[in-house]
UniProtKB/TrEMBL annotation, chain B:
Keywords: ATP-binding, Cell cycle, Cell division, Cell membrane, Membrane, Nucleotide-binding. Part of the ABC transporter FtsEX involved in cellular division. Important for assembly or stability of the septal ring. It is found in: Cell inner membrane; Cell membrane. It comes from the Bacteria. Belongs to the ABC transporter superfamily. Homodimer. Forms a membrane-associated complex with FtsX. This is Cell division ATP-binding protein FtsE.
Length: 325, 222
């Protein structure tokens, strides 16, 4: 018996080697067959498939939309960077002629791109105008405002602007230098906060996608339990059993991704009017960035991968429980 | 081909479904397995295809201790054994043809070759003309024959059958048994579990008799 057994396994080994190419072909054939078969199964129940995909799409839209908005905010940030200025307030005793000389001294500094002098009188006029307090201020005995120089730095990065401020403060006649970009920094912190929130949401909603797909696939596995038992009885491997479900998961993910792209495009169109109007009212030109080809490709790849992963988790958890009777 | 050495199977920690089993089945033999309901016939067959693992002792099939198979090897081991199940285990949402083709599909056989083998197997059990039918459209006996076609389509060296004539009429039962004898004649080792003592007696093959999980008789063909 054992010599016969050896003979058998030797023969087995030979056919095995001879058909390595054949095995790859049959593997490819099964992948093709299962991808088609699982797509057909989804199409057989179009409404419930669509609902699952929609649930996936909704989970994807929020983080993807936020990410797009932040991307837009970064562009806005760059634009605002260029408008960062410093204001150098001159000492009270400085008269207009001296102020002019100080402005020249400041503009000679290598870190300074541009300067504009606001004399005490001009400052007062601007102040009155902007506050609408002409009468009240006119009653003041003198002009309490100092002259000032608005400085546009050559290099607008926050550190070098801050360094420039220190250097300009040392110039005689300059009382104090104020950075006008404190609010800009606040915006940056907000943007960073936004990024983290987006990341957290992406993780949470990504898990949501896993759950949606996992639950759908769990039901599919349950429905095909008998089939799984039978093929296991007659020698199907776990990858063979898993394959159709993994493809279903990937199809759900892809479908959800496509719907999400559509929703983002629609939503972008719908919001673009108010958004650019709002931006224009702040004197900035800002448009919501579109998803574009690259963004869509990334979104679809992520959603397909999430679908596949959700299916993998569900099937693996479930296969362990299914034992043929 | 099969060797049981001091095999015992205990379910749920206290109930011995099988105990002290010692026997060998040589390559090319045909053996009946009989005994009352609950004697352990199905359990014994399930041990051979490693649906269950013995609580004690070891089982050698083709010289290999099957308890030592890694779980990833088990599917490949099962592919070498044809099994006719007590309850058919057909897939009711696909045609007779696709049911019989299933083992070949699992092995990734090239479709043209597979189709040739499926037709040969269906022809052998006399159901070639029903290949497009669904299992539900077939009688119990015909379904049983589909199960047999699926078990032999892969030309296994070992064929196991659990009550293949379960509730069939005597004529059909005799036909099915002679089908197994045909496979045995071309070299397949065959093991058939059955209650049908009259039929078994008529066929004159070695018979293993189980009683409450113990082997109480091993009668050579007379
Ligand atoms: N999974 C299981 N868990 C617990 N007990 C089991 C299990 N499978 C079988 N048994 C018990 O083992 C004993 C043998 O069962 P088995 O199915 O092997 O009998 P059988 O000879 O095939 O009977 P039948 O002729 O009715 O099919 C029975 O008493 C049964 O209750
Ligand atoms: Mg039984």
């Amino acid at each position: 018996m054992s010599s016969q057994g050896q003979e058998r396994s030797r023969r087995g080994a030979r056919t095995h080697r001879a058909s390595a190419g054949g095995r790859w072909r049959s593997w490819g054939r099964h992948h093709r067959a299962m991808s088609l078969d699982s797509a057909q199964r989804l199409l057989r129940y179009p409404l419930s498939s669509l609902l699952t995909m929609l649930a996936i799409a909704i989970a994807l839209v929020l983080p993807a939309g936020l990410w797009l908005a932040l991307d837009g905010a970064r562009l806005l940030d760059a634009e605002l960077d260029e408008s960062a200025t410093l204001t150098a307030y001159l000492a009270d005793r400085v008269d207009d002629g001296e102020a002019g000389r100080i402005e020249e001294a400041l503009s000679a500094h290598e870190g300074v791109a541009e300067t504009r002098l606001i004399t005490a009188a001009e400052g007062m006029a601007e102040f009155q105008q902007s506050l609408g307090l002409e009468d009240a201020l006119a009653r003041l005995p003198g002009n309490p405002l100092p002259a000032s120089v608005v400085v546009t730095p050559a290099d607008t990065s926050p550190e070098s602007v801050r360094r420039l401020a220190g250097e300009l403060e040392a110039v005689s006649g300059v009382e104090e230098v104020r950075l006008d970009f404190a609010w800009l920094e606040r915006l940056r912190h907000l943007a960073e906060l936004g990024q983290r929130v987006t990341l957290a949401l992406a993780v949470l909603f990504g898990m949501g996608v896993l759950l949606v797909v996992g639950n759908t696939i769990r039901l599919a596995v349950e429905n095909r339990r008998q089939e799984i038992e039978v093929v296991t009885l007659i020698g199907a491997t776990h990858p063979f059993v898993r394959r159709p479900f993994l493809y279903s998961g990937a199809w759900y993910g892809l479908g959800g991704g496509i719907l999400a792209c559509g929703l983002l495009t629609l939503g972008g169109d719908w919001l673009s009017g108010p958004v650019s109007a709002l931006a224009a009212s702040y004197g900035a030109s800002f448009a919501l960035p579109a998803l574009g080809f690259g963004g869509s490709a990334i979104l679809l790849a992520c959603s397909t991968l999430l679908g596949w992963l959700g299916a993998w988790i569900a099937v693996s958890r479930h296969l362990a429980q299914i034992r043929p009777r | 081909m099969i060797a049981f050495e001091h095999v015992g199977k205990r379910y749920g920690g206290r109930f011995d479904a099988l105990a002290h089993l010692n026997f060998r089945v040589e390559r090319g033999e045909m053996v009946f397995l009989t005994g009352h309901s609950g004697a352990g016939k199905s359990s014994l067959l399930r041990l051979i295809i490693r649906l269950e693992r013995p609580s004690r002792g070891r089982i050698l099939v083709a010289g290999h201790d099957i308890d030592r198979l890694h779980h990833t090897q088990v599917p490949f081991y099962r592919r070498q054994i044809g099994v006719v199940f007590q309850d058919h285990q057909l897939l009711f949402d696909r045609s007779i043809y696709h049911n019989v083709a299933l083992p070949l599909e699992i092995q990734g056989m090239e479709p043209r070759e597979a189709s040739r083998r499926v037709r040969a197997a269906l022809d052998k059990v006399g159901l070639l003309h029903r290949e497009r039918a669904l299992p539900i459209e077939l009688s119990g006996g015909e379904q049983q024959r589909v199960g047999i076609a699926r078990a032999v389509v892969n030309k296994p060296a070992l064929l196991l059958a659990d009550e293949p004539t379960g509730n069939l009429d005597p004529q059909l039962s005799a036909d099915i048994m002679s089908l197994f004898e045909d496979f045995n004649r071309i070299g397949t080792t065959v093991m058939v579990a059955s209650h049908d003592l009259a039929l078994i007696a008529r066929l004159r093959h070695r018979t293993l008799r189980l009683h409450e999980g113990r082997l109480v008789a091993d009668e050579e063909a007379v």
